[in-house]
Specification:
Blueprint (H helix, E strand, L loop, with lengths): L5 H15 L15 H12 L11 E13 L3 E8 L2 E8 H4 L1 H10 L5 E10 L5 E12 L9 E5 L2 E5 L5 H6 L1 H7 L1 H23 L3 E2 L5 E2 L11 E4 L4 E5 L4 H9 L4 E9 L11 E10 L3 H20 L3 E4 L2 E4 L5 E4 H9 L9 H10 L10 H12 L8 E7 L15 E9 L2 E8 L4 H10 L16 H8 L5 E7 H9 L18
Parallel strand pairs: 3-5, 8-12, 16-17
Antiparallel strand pairs: 1-2, 1-4, 2-3, 4-5, 6-7, 9-11, 10-11, 12-13, 13-20, 14-15, 17-18, 18-19, 19-20
Helix pairs in contact: 6-7, 7-9, 7-15, 10-12, 11-12, 13-14
This protein binds one RNA strand through helix 1, strand 1, strand 2, strand 3 and strand 6.
Length: about 500
RNA sequence: GGGCCGCUAGCUCAAUUGGCAGAGCAGGGGCCUUUUAAGCCCUUGGUUACAGGUUCGAGUCCUGUGCGGCUCACCA
């Protein structure tokens, strides 16, 4: 253990003093008759019949973290906090005992986890309070929590000297959570969002499944993977970058509606909206196309917003977002034409498009395909300006190798992405189910039949084999769950909605 | 990976042109039987992220390193 600070040294001597008098600072067993919230509720019910609230005989044993102490000689007030609430303790020398009160003042610190037994009453100022007759240490806190001060003022909790250094908060998320209720609330909302997503999909007869995280051949997205190795099998493996190819194998197997919520890993840059591991929702729906998926998507997100926030109108970074279906559907080509004043339909080759982009002041990277040029135009000119939920529809074929082309244009695929609040949220398409077309698309992407020579991305022959057995036409969908959490909890950074975001190692 | 900005006590922050490193809270010693950012008196606490350099003198200026924030690039 590293060198203790002065404060930690003091706390250690308090701990030793407790041990010396036979009081364990870390006892095995705990008593607890009520959560704080249920004790307060029981008290309110007990006095609702006119019982004198200053003199009840309602007993409770409560547990929680000591969050504030005010001592005044033969009397002290304190607050303890458990997950559901906070309550004041009244510690009187004539109830608790003079010696025990002195021990409390000497040996208990902010941050200690304690147990308090007593009867409930209301103080002169009207606060529900436990008149404490016995105190027990449950876990002595050695290191001081960040010294935020909180106070209820006219119903609103004001925080002073908040622990708000982002790096310190992420590195010591436990301290952040212990001290910042607002942060705990984000992760409760996150849990509700996941529950609502599952509820919605389960109610629509989707089957939740789990597919491999460790994959011999990665695919389903364009990202670079993390790689690892199985020692006994002498096999190189990748952490998945998407679930797509496994989930569609399940449609071949006869499941018609499947979904998975889990972790994807992408070895790419870290940013406000990218964490190396993130939570993805994907579903695949047999006998549906991307129009059906759009309808389900807007219903699903509106349902989750309603369940989690109570409304389909959500404030994100000062903007009102309206999740109420139907959402606007705009073609990619129209949006790009509108915002960049380049109508790429008039430039059928990559060279021609790159030229007009340069004329308009863009800097297209050399050797990009036409689809990549269109995509870069979109992200530069359009993406951050889409505030209200918007389906961006119909993408270039060469950047969408798993999507079926439209019936009228072989260079365009039936694909949509959802943007809102300036964020990309979803990606979906009418899935390609023609094994010959799929093989050709893989080959065009540079997938190789043999990977023995080295770095080429191998052809996923097993996936093609599956498709040759017959894959029902289907619509597929992917959504970044962390980003949905950002939108519904009004957070600008993905790190605020991931409990332990990835940070560079210290030292 | 590039650019810009930041890093001062356990936490939140000051420190004039380069001139004695400070405050509030937390901590320690006291007083106090209805407080709630309790109050009052006294008080401890610093390798100013790290390593160099310039200077009589560096938290402040210069160089490098680390970590972070923002941003750009990358990212079907």
């Amino acid at each position: 253990m590293r060198t203790l600070t002065e404060i930690e040294q003091y706390r250690l001597t308090k701990l030793e003093r407790m041990r010396d008098r036979g009081e364990s600072p870390y006892p095995h067993r705990v008593q607890r008759t009520h959560s704080i919230a249920s004790a307060v509720q029981a008290f309110d019910e007990a006095v609702s019949d006119g019982t004198d609230p200053h003199e009840t005989d309602l007993k409770a044993i409560l547990c929680g973290r000591l969050r504030s102490v005010r001592t005044m000689g033969k009397l002290a007030f304190a607050h303890i906090e458990d997950e559901g609430g906070r309550i004041q303790l009244l510690l009187r020398a004539d109830v608790l005992g003079v010696d025990r009160l002195k021990q409390f003042e000497d040996d208990f610190d902010l941050g200690d986890i304690i147990q308090a037994e007593g009867t409930l009453l209301r103080t002169r100022t009207g606060e529900t309070t436990l008149n404490t007759s016995a105190l027990r240490m449950l876990a002595k806190s050695i290191s001081p929590l960040p010294a935020a001060k909180e106070v209820d003022e006219e119903g609103e909790r004001k925080t002073y000297s908040a622990f708000d250094n982002a790096e310190a908060r992420y590195r010591e998320r436990y301290a952040d959570l212990a001290v910042n209720e607002r942060v705990r609330e984000i992760f409760r909302a996150r849990a509700r969002i996941l529950r609502a997503l599952r509820m919605f999909l389960d109610n629509h007869d989707f089957l939740e499944v789990e597919t491999p995280v460790l994959q011999p051949i990665y695919g389903g997205a364009a990202a670079k993977p993390f790689s690892t190795h199985h020692n006994q099998l002498h096999q190189d493996l990748f952490l998945r970058i998407s679930f797509e190819l496994y989930l569609k194998r399940l449609l071949v197997g006869g499941f018609e509606k499947v979904y998975e919520i889990g972790r994807d890993f992408r070895n790419e840059g870290v940013s406000l909206t990218h964490n190396p591991e993130f939570t993805q929702l994907e579903f695949y729906w047999a006998y549906a196309d991307y129009h059906d998926v759009m309808c389900l998507t807007e219903q699903m997100v509106a349902y989750v917003a309603e369940q989690v926030t109570g409304s389909t109108m959500v404030t994100y970074q000062g903007q009102q977002l309206d999740f109420n279906p139907p959402w606007e559907r705009c073609s990619l080509s129209d949006l790009v034409a509108e915002y960049s004043s380049i109508d790429y339909r008039k430039f059928p080759t990559a060279e021609g498009l790159a030229m007009v982009m340069r004329e308009k002041g863009h800097d297209p990277s050399m050797g990009s395909t036409r689809g990549k040029l269109i995509e870069s135009l979109f992200s530069a000119c359009v993406e951050s300006r889409l505030m209200q939920p918007t389906f961006v529809v119909d993408y270039p074929r060469d950047i969408s190798p798993l999507a079926k082309t439209t019936e009228k244009d072989p260079e365009t695929v039936e694909r949509f992405e959802v943007f809102m609040g300036g964020l990309e949220l979803c990606n979906a398409f009418t899935e390609l189910n023609d094994p010959f077309d799929q093989e050709e698309r893989f080959a065009q992407m540079g997938r190789e039949y043999s990977n023995e020579s080295g770095d080429g991305h191998p052809m996923d022959l097993d996936y093609l084999r599956a498709m040759r057995y017959g894959m029902p036409p289907n619509g597929g969908f992917g959504m970044g769950v962390d980003r949905l959490v950002m939108l519904l909890t009004d957070q600008r950074s993905i790190r605020e909605v991931i409990l332990f975001p990835h940070l560079r190692a210290k030292q």
